[in-house]
């Protein structure tokens, strides 16, 4: 999945994550491979339980891989790595969490929450420099320096998520894993947070892995979208290409669930329900095939032949 004129920042190769409770093994992520290019927003979309957060946590080295490898900036970051390389991952890959209330320490001031990474990595020479960095981080996300002395419960959900973004940004990371960063927020606040993330991306040359369950959210902020179902990536394409020419039936079912602003169209819209048993893989085993440049789909040979007719 290489694109010659773009620099790969993160690469997943045949990644598998298995959970084992002693009696039973559960494969949460199956042979997932994709590249994320420097400076792009790569969206990973699927419903609850599809394995998208598991992939995010594997990149952050929280979930161990049972197979495959993850490369960041050309170096392997999965499995056993040195302490120094582990710190490098923590410094350069930051996460924005789904629930801004649960991901902030209620007993700590905003000043301490945002400064924590600076303390851990000694990224300041004196307290005045640290305070200046915190003030700048707050201003960059639309909050005020005087908010520093407050606690998370004194803020709204949208403001708390801005604190979470400031905490990630102050580390000057190369990659941000945003795990459903707006799903816990009011609809009116969502666009503000998305616009903020987009602005910071352009301003700082950031790269995002944006995890979501809603395709309509990612359409306008993503460069490329990968659709995941039960731990398997079933389709990957440029954002507009995926919306204009979806091929896999699961992608089509997700798109059919996107609400339409026109009430007449919405009224007559047909919801497509996806059933995994509509595929017959007993004879022809499926594989991930590039149907046209940059557009990949999961399917057996007869399915791929059928998909090619619709290009």
What does this protein structure show overall?
There is one protein chain. With 311 residues, the chain is α/β, with parallel strands linked by helices. It has a single domain (8-308), classed as P-loop containing nucleotide triphosphate hydrolases (Rossmann fold). Helices cover 34% and strands 25% of the residues. It contains eleven helices and twelve strands. The protein has helices at residues 52-59, 83-92, 110-121, 127-140, 157-169, 187-204, 215-219, 239-244, 249-256, 263-267, 301-308; strands at 8-20, 25-37, 41-45, 67-72, 75-76, 93-96, 175-179, 207-212, 224-229, 232-238, 287-292, 295-299. The strands form two sheets. Strands 6-7-8-3-9-10-12-11 form an eight-stranded mixed β-sheet, with helices on both faces. A four-stranded antiparallel β-sheet has the order 2-1-4-5, covered by helices on one side. The longest helix has 18 residues, at 187-204.
SSE order and pairing:
Blueprint: E1 8-20, E2 25-37, E3 41-45, H1 52-59, E4 67-72, E5 75-76, H2 83-92, E6 93-96, H3 110-121, H4 127-140, H5 157-169, E7 175-179, H6 187-204, E8 207-212, H7 215-219, E9 224-229, E10 232-238, H8 239-244, H9 249-256, H10 263-267, E11 287-292, E12 295-299, H11 301-308
Parallel strand pairs: 3-8, 3-9, 6-7, 7-8
Antiparallel strand pairs: 1-2, 1-4, 4-5, 9-10, 10-12, 11-12
Helix pairs in contact: 3-4, 3-5, 4-5, 5-6
